[in-house]
Design brief:
single chain, about 220 residues, Aminopeptidase, eight-stranded mixed sheet, 8 helices, about 20% strand
Length: about 220
Amino acid sequence: MSRKTARLTVDHLAELPDPVRSCLFWELGPVDRARLDERERIAEKESWLSTVLRDWGSCGRVVRVDGRTAGLIIYAPAARLPGAAALPTAPSSPDAVVAATAWIDPAHRGGGLGRMLVQAMAADLVERGQTAIEAYGDTRGRSHGCVLPAEFLGSVGFKTQRAHPTTPRMRMELRTALRWKDEVELALERVWGVVRPTQKATRPIGSVRAASGDQL
């Protein structure tokens, strides 16, 4: 089975099922979302992605399994995600990029694809000089309104930044989180142009848990 990540493009959106391809929970505020029908939501999603790609650069990753899109993650500066303002733990920290949402095809869940996407996102942001990622979790054991389950975020290395009974804001410090992940170290080596000697480093507390999560 071939598994690889790639930069999210508008073409990838057409391969996604509904409501994933038309979800505008993050991209628009509640009033603006309510005005659009399904076709308009799909067009708005494509327009948003095109604009962010042009103005800010890569804002998502997909994972491809045997040539088919099996998952994605979307991230962007908070200013590009006005829907987050409706959440009780907003706003995000000024130094953080926001991981808005992610999705894994149900047929491929539990196989590590979610972790692959988070690591690809982190490697991209480190290369671009970012230092932290924040995300809003849902504690109710399900994905709700395109908000990621808090359990999943915790399993891949996020820690609670601002607690809340249902919607905690969670944070990943990129330097700490990436230092101990073999897959991401390979990406960093390409960025820095060095090859590190193979060795086992002592993992920080919580890293073992972070290495195994994939429950989207």
